[in-house]
Amino acid sequence: MEFSGNVGEKGYALEPRSAVIFLGTGCSNSVPNARCLIQPSDPPCQVCLSSLSLLPDRNPNYRSDTIGLQMNRCNTSLLVDFCGRDGEHHYVLIDVGKTFREQVIRWFTFHKIPRIDSIVLTHEHADAVLGLDDIRAVQPHSPTNDIAPTPIYLTQEAMDSVGMKFPYLVQKKLKEGQEVRRVSQLEWKIIENDCKKPFVASGLELVPLPVMHGEDYICLGFRFGENCKVAYVSDVSRILPTTEHYISESNGQQLDLLILDTLRKEGSHNVHFCLPQSLDAVKRLRPKRALLIGMSHEFDHHKDNEFLREWSTREGIPVQLAHDGLRIPVDL
Ligand SMILES: [Zn+2]
Ligand SMILES: [Zn+2]
């Protein structure tokens, strides 16, 4: 029931295989939770405390696979390192949240990720898009913005909202008298929230998986991989029937890996799955294995993975909490 592909010593960028790399596995607030640290509860929250004791400036093993690091969770984001038929690596980034810069510093360096080739957005909430300004840090430097823009795939609804949040990233031409300022160069590409409308990002075909993220809001997950079938659903409170059919084992398309939202350990939440709903969904969809993401500070990585190991043995489907920096080789 153990997952291979935990963080290794060397990084894997030259390995001739595709992989998914978990750049972030935490909720919108991230972990540690700031309020937990400045107004500690009694007794204090051990999860947040352990991440504090291992903050980068005090932690000589900043990038090592330590207990504290597994409690340190940035906004949900996945990097698909797609090794195409040409043998070249193509880097497809899903979501660019508030913590993107920290994720680059921690994990792009560790896993030797040299650039981003395309970006895919699940939706336009702060924890999925507020790092777009920092995309320029992973683009070639040009004082005049004279570089090839990075394609970014998003729905029209997300585009409308991102245009209001970042007008300077959407603006095509400088107005008269406006100085050139260096900003992320993005090529906006509209996708549909429809399982039947796949699109291709840097050679990788992705199928949009519309799901409810609160009953007033549709968010996208994505299914990708021809050989190893992966579905990524980071923000969900209810899986729509068409999407459920598309990714369930009963459709004859059993997923090799399901990556699924889980915000809290108990109860339910109006806009996210909590553990009971996530495990119910795993039982219905029956993937070969599942990894959970989006966890708040209620989750203790090691303790809760113990519980999940027992659950997995009982139900016959391996399920574990993912952690930031986790790299899983997959044959896409
Ligand atoms: Zn806490
Ligand atoms: Zn959201």
UniProtKB/TrEMBL annotation:
SMART domains reported for this sequence: Lactamase_B
Coiled coil: none
A family per Pfam: Lactamase_B_2
Domain Metallo-beta-lactamase: 73-297
Record-linked InterPro entries: Metallo-B-lactamas, RibonucZ/Hydroxyglut_hydro
Protein name: Metallo-beta-lactamase domain-containing protein
The species this protein was found in: Rhododendron simsii
